[in-house]
Amino acid sequence: MAVRILGVLAGTDLSADEVVALAGRCEHVYAADSAADVCLSAGLKPIVVGDLDSIQSPLDGLDVRHDPDQNSTDADKMLVAIRADHPTHQLLIAGLEGDRIDHVLSSLSSLIQHGEVIHLAFRQGWGLVVPPPAFFHGREVELPDLAGAEISVMPLGAAKVTLTGVEWPLDKAEMKLGGLVSISNRALTTVTVTLHSGSVLIRISGREWNWVRASS
Asked: Which of 23, 33, 163, 184 has CA 20 to 30 A from 191's CA?
């Protein structure tokens, strides 16, 4: 069975209570560098991974994985550690948004490379990063019980997408930044996102979510 993991980035998007609530739905908590400060202030004891150049809190008694390599980000390092510790897992990321757009884009790049569908906790709503389908086959994500929710599908680069169960469906649509995107669509029933190529970011309104699986 897949191990459920909360990975915390340093965006400080969520309150301590919200981080604790997310951790309660997971079996392990990992923090990328100074995200450990967020976790410790919330009373959590994460596994800390990174180059450790910005942490303010003492790390006594914690599982600390120091990696000084400057050719990878702290998000990269955290994701590598998670995969090494738990090859079969489901991952929820908090602290993605932050206050710097370059950090957001860098973190999204890291999440795509992880290769798994990753859950995201936003300030408003929740979402998923869906990476490219394995071996060039389609990857399908089913999102049940979304009737009335707002859903956006943003290509991360370029992607070919089929979207059903929404007011404005897509059929193998060629999406790309600078071209077609899908913002503020409306869910009518169970929503299915089929990714034929490329990667997408999905954002869904509301805070009620469940772990989802992708077939590929």
From this structure: 23
Residue at a domain's end among 73, 101, 123 = 123
Number of domains comprising the chain: 2
Nearest to 142 by CA among 111, 175, 117: 117
Q: Answer yes or no: do 23 and 113 share one domain.
A: yes
164: how many CB neighbours lie within 10 A of its CB?
A: 15
Whether 190 and 142 map to the same domain: the answer is yes
**Terminal Cα-to-Cα distance of the chain (whole angstroms):** 18
Domain match, 6 and 82 both: yes
91 plus 29 within the same structural domain: yes
Per-residue burial over 70-97, b if 16 or more Cβ lie within 10 Å, else e, is eeebbbbbbbbbbeeebeebbbbbbbbb
pLDDT in tens, 174-192: 999 999 999 999 999 999 9
Q: Tokens 């908090």 correspond to what residue?
A: 94
Domain hosting 195: range is 132-216
- Cite the beta strand spans of 47-181 per DSSP E: 47-50, 64-66, 89-94, 118-121, 126-130, 139-143, 150-166, 170-176
Instruction: With H, G, I as helix, E, B as strand and everything else as coil, classify residue 92.
Output: strand
CA dihedral 182, 4, 18, 185 (to 10 degrees): 10
